[in-house]
TrEMBL record, chain A:
<protein>
    <submittedName>
        <fullName>CO2 hydration protein</fullName>
    </submittedName>
</protein>
<dbReference type="InterPro" id="IPR010220">
    <property type="entry name" value="CO2_hydration"/>
</dbReference>
<dbReference type="Pfam" id="PF10216">
    <property type="entry name" value="ChpXY"/>
</dbReference>
TrEMBL record, chain B:
<feature type="transmembrane region" description="Helical">
    <location>
        <begin position="154"/>
        <end position="175"/>
    </location>
</feature>
<keyword id="KW-1133">Transmembrane helix</keyword>
<dbReference type="GO" id="GO:0016491">
    <property type="term" value="F:oxidoreductase activity"/>
</dbReference>
<dbReference type="InterPro" id="IPR003918">
    <property type="entry name" value="NADH_UbQ_OxRdtase"/>
</dbReference>
<feature type="domain" description="NADH:quinone oxidoreductase/Mrp antiporter transmembrane">
    <location>
        <begin position="118"/>
        <end position="408"/>
    </location>
</feature>
<comment type="function">
    <text>NDH-1 shuttles electrons from NAD(P)H, via FMN and iron-sulfur (Fe-S) centers, to quinones in the respiratory chain. The immediate electron acceptor for the enzyme in this species is believed to be plastoquinone. Couples the redox reaction to proton translocation (for every two electrons transferred, four hydrogen ions are translocated across the cytoplasmic membrane), and thus conserves the redox energy in a proton gradient.</text>
</comment>
<feature type="transmembrane region" description="Helical">
    <location>
        <begin position="123"/>
        <end position="142"/>
    </location>
</feature>
<comment type="similarity">
    <text>Belongs to the complex I subunit 4 family.</text>
</comment>
<dbReference type="InterPro" id="IPR010227">
    <property type="entry name" value="NADH_Q_OxRdtase_chainM/4"/>
</dbReference>
């Protein structure tokens, strides 16, 4: 364990605070030095950037379809075609990427990524109608995106005001207008709405989370694309560079409005208007990280558990089934959401990652497992970025010279690391390259 | 000529291999060619009708090279060749001292084949004893950490078995009222002096009971199977143990029918005890190889109950069980060997998640499940045919032992489910899991055996078709439902006690 080292190129300065005695002291010192939970090695950098690229392509579909479902499919009682976003949504420009965007931060983003469009046309098989691709399951697996949305919807008390807003009268009034408009001329559904209003309201709340996650991923997709481009151009020198890019991205769009608009008969119904002031960082990004990276749900297959033996916590906040804790070996077992994501990413792996996987373990035979572990590494890096961003927002700079402030930072980092003390956490494993 | 070739081929192989250079590929190819040829010749003899070869060897001691094939020995000779064939195939590519190993395998093959072909009790004895030497060496040199202890136990039990058989065979030959002869034809027609048949019978039953084995003569088996390398365990369970069943059927049932009828209730009791003891012990094992060993012991118990019944149907079931058990246990031990080779352990508490499609051993575990299902007597697999025949035929003469065997057979499902729940499912251990996948050369023996297990279940004639007339001729009781069974017109039970 080495104490945090302030940069002193010529004279060795004494550390301002004593070394941490935490079990993850080495990781904490790395975070205090501006690093990531993921060790800074060339292979780690290659792995995480490669998987960001592979993740970004399906994510480009996820956010478009999530918004399509939230805004257009809405309360369709038989949403058989909800995974078939219209061309309008595939051509929808990204709000924060590309020259056409109102606030250009990242590159690209004019419309859906070319690799995504190519895959949607051909899949793993050949060119055929969309419906056949869908039925053959040769497609992007939106089920994963929906599982993430449901995790956010189900886990509450993760900060922010978004969930509470869904219970307020203003929201209910807006939803009521939209429901009545959507079912105009449909006495059966309107009758059902009169009998069971909460059932319909709950569906609208779910749609609001579709919108929430869609708007979150609309930001993340171009971030990951650009990271891949920068890496290909030789721009990143290490894992901390990649993390810093994420931190800067988080702050760049932290104030992006989170809203829910529904389009019915050409009219826009603002169920959650932008004027409510919900923002990307607090109402989408942080709840997403908490719900999906940490908590989620014990999908049979990602985690082995015995509910009868009390192995599933009674308190939702104690759930620990996210990617940071995931045992990725059972991947592929039962069509569970994480498995579907692995399958989605597999289609878009950059060649250097495919070559890497071919050299290790069972090569192509267990490539889903290997890329799953890479994904785990990359999400530890994203989580590191979120932790650093929170530290920036709430605490003190890393180069602060006040020991009190540094100790406050230390306590914050240690509190974050406490969440990885449970045996399921994969933080110790990702410290070595042997974990594949 | 075919009879002679069936013996000459393994003999030649066993002699030739030590003269070849220590080149793994060459040795393996020569061994495979030898056994494959033996297997093909054996196949050509199936369904050909009885054939015999008589050659005087040492007439002064009554030893002659009397060989023969009938409905009992022909399928067993083919099974032995097949088991040795898959044993050679299952021998690891990096097998230490391959020349000696393969040579000993072929020597065992020679002994086993000689025993089932012999039509002279002294020749049978020689072959029976010959098996003991190479198998002891195979166990002692290539076994697990406690192989020395296992080999000592094995050879001690084997020696007792051999000595008692020697006593029984000599007594059979010398006390034969018609003169000094060890020929099976003479022994089948002999009249023993009053009083002597009891102890001759006891000697023979003790000898073959040790080899089969049955409780309480099984002391060597769990340790030997547990410590033997997988190819050797395949040979011991699939090949060597059939000598016990064959010996009981040929000598005790065949030459001493009155004694067999007299003692059959006790024998059935021992069989039921063996079945229950084996199954219950299998349930509590933490070592997969010992679990399979006890499971095998349990199935031998059922075989003994059916032997005790000695009806045409039950004896047909016995032969079918010898064949099916040979295939299933060889498959199980091969798969256990693969698990050990890939994971480094066969301890149930140390393994989990092996059915994982990417990082586990799904192919191996899948076939393991198939083999355990066959062992449990699931319809459509080879284990069902003999179990059905044996239960059906043993029920009337021995209802209580048969019921116990039925319950014990049900326990197979218990230890199979327990094993799979712990080893197949659950999560792979992050710290341990780095298992290499099985290669096609490793899978091939398992595929071959598994295919035969399935074919044997779907086509019962493969297991029972060859032995019908011979077993009917050996039968001592008539079934109350003989109309259900197609008994060859020429054959009829020898003795029908009231």
């Amino acid at each position: 364990m080495t104490p945090p080292t302030a940069t002193a190129p010529e004279t060795q300065r004494q550390p301002l605070i004593p070394p941490s005695t935490h079990r993850y002291a080495e990781v904490i010192h790395r975070l205090e030095a501006g690093g990531s939970m993921l060790p800074d090695t060339p292979e780690n950098l290659m792995q995480i950037i490669g998987i960001y690229k592979a993740y970004a392509v399906p994510m480009d579909f996820y956010w478009r379809d999530l918004l399509y479902i939230a805004e257009q499919v809405f309360l369709d009682p038989l949403p058989a075609f909800k995974y078939f976003p219209t061309q309008e949504y595939l051509d929808r420009p990204n709000a924060y990427a590309g020259e056409q965007s109102k606030l250009r931060i990242w590159r690209g983003g004019e419309k859906a990524h070319p690799e995504l469009l190519e895959f949607m046309a051909k899949g793993e098989t050949t060119r055929m109608p969309k419906l056949l691709h869908h039925l053959w399951h040769d497609r992007i697996n939106m089920e994963f995106a929906e599982a993430c949305m449901e995790a956010m919807f189900w886990h509450q008390g993760m900060g922010g005001r978004f969930y509470d807003y869904l219970e307020c009268d203003a929201y209910k009034a807006n939803a009521d207008k939209a429901i009545k408009a959507y079912f105009r001329g449909n006495p059966l559904m309107l009758g059902l709405y009169a009998l069971f209003p909460e059932m319909f309201l709950e569906q609208v709340r779910k749609m609001s989370y579709y919108a929430n996650l869609g708007l979150f991923w609309e930001v993340m997709a171009p971030v990951f694309f650009e990271m891949s481009d920068i890496y290909d151009e030789g721009g990143f020198k290490g894992v901390p560079d990649a993390m810093d890019f994420l931190v800067n991205g988080i702050f760049a769009v932290a104030g992006r409005p989170i809203y829910h608009h529904v389009f019915i008969g050409g009219e826009c119904f603002e169920i959650i208007p932008k004027s409510e002031g919900f923002t990307w960082l607090y109402e989408a990004a942080l709840p997403y990280v908490e719900a999906v990276f940490y908590r989620t749900a014990p999908f049979r297959g990602t985690k082995s558990y015995n509910a009868q033996a009390g192995q599933v916590p009674a308190v939702q906040a104690d759930f620990h089934y996210g990617i940071l804790y995931a045992d990725v070996f059972p991947v592929g077992s039962a069509g569970i959401p994480p498995t579907l994501l692995m399958q989605d990413m597999l289609h878009f792996l950059p060649p250097y990652l495919t070559e890497l996987y071919a050299k290790h373990k069972r090569g192509e035979g267990d490539i889903l497992n290997q890329l799953g572990i890479t994904f785990q590494r990359s999400m530890y890096n994203v989580t590191s970025a979120v932790i650093q961003a929170l530290r920036c927002a709430l605490l003190y700079p890393l180069d602060d010279t006040d020991p009190e402030h540094l100790m406050a930072n230390r306590r914050f980092f240690e509190a974050q690391m406490d969440r990885f003390l449970r045996p399921e956490a994969r933080l110790p494993q990702i410290q070595t390259q042997d974990y594949r | 000529m075919a009879l002679l070739l069936l013996l000459l081929l393994p003999a030649l192989g066993a002699v030739l291999l030590p003269l070849l250079p220590e080149h793994q590929g060459l040795l393996r190819r020569v061994s495979l060619a030898t056994v494959l040829l033996q297997f093909v010749i054996g196949l050509t003899q199936l369904g050909q009708g009885p054939s015999e070869l008589h050659q005087v060897w040492l007439p002064r001691i009554g030893l002659s090279l009397d060989l023969g094939l009938d409905g009992l020995s022909a399928p067993l000779a083919v099974l032995i060749a097949l088991i040795v064939l898959v044993t050679v195939l299952a021998t690891p590519a990096d097998q230490a001292r391959p020349r000696l190993f393969l040579s000993l395998l072929l020597a065992t093959d020679l002994g086993l084949t000689g025993a089932v072909l012999a039509r002279n009790a002294l020749l049978f004895l020689l072959a029976y004893e010959l098996v003991l030497i190479p198998t002891t060496l195979l166990l002692a040199v290539w076994g697990g950490p406690r192989r020395a202890q296992a080999a000592i136990q094995y050879v001690m039990y084997g020696a007792v078995s051999g000595l008692t058989l020697l006593g029984g065979v000599l007594a059979l030959g010398w006390l034969n009222g018609d003169g000094f002869s060890f020929a099976f034809s003479d022994l089948a027609a002999m009249q023993l002096p009053a009083g002597s048949s009891h102890w001759i019978f006891a000697l023979l039953v003790l000898s073959f009971g040790l080899k089969l084995p049955v409780v309480p003569l099984h002391g060597w088996q769990p340790l030997a199977y547990g410590q033997a390398s997988s190819p050797v365990a395949m040979l011991l369970s699939g090949g060597v143990s059939i000598l016990g069943g064959y010996g009981l059927l040929r000598f005790a049932v065949g030459f001493l029918p009155e004694e067999w009828i007299l003692w059959s209730p006790w024998i059935a009791g021992v069989g039921a005890l063996t079945a229950a003891y084996g199954a219950l012990n299998a349930i509590v094992q933490s070592d997969i190889r010992r679990l399979v060993a006890y499971g095998s012991l349990g199935h031998m118990g059922l075989l003994v109950v059916a032997l005790a019944a000695a009806t045409p149907l039950s004896l047909q079931g016995v032969v079918a069980q010898l064949l099916a058990h040979g295939l299933i246990s060889a498959l199980l031990f091969h798969l256990v060997g693969l698990i050990e080779a890939k994971t480094g352990s066969i301890q149930i508490p140390e393994l989990a998640g092996l059915l994982n499609p990417y990082r586990g051993l799904p192919f191996t575990l899948g076939l393991f499940l198939l083999a355990l299902m066959a062992s449990a007597g699931i319809p459509g697999l080879a284990g069902f045919v003999p179990e059905f025949l044996m239960f059906e035929a043993s029920w009337t003469p021995f209802p209580v032992p048969t019921l116990l065997c039925l319950i014990a057979s049900g326990f197979t499902a218990v230890y199979a489910v327990r094993l799979f729940n712990r080893v197949g499912f659950g999560r792979l251990d992050n710290d341990r899991v780095d298992y290499p996948s099985t290669g096609w050369s490793e899978r091939f023996p398992a595929i071959l055996l598994a295919a035969l297990v399935v074919v044997g279940g779907l086509w019962p004639g493969l297991l029972v078709g060859w032995s019908e007339s011979t077993t009917t001729a050996l039968a001592l009781r008539r079934e109350p439902f003989s109309a259900l069974v197609a008994i060859a017109p020429s054959a009829s039970p020898r003795q029908l006690p009231s």
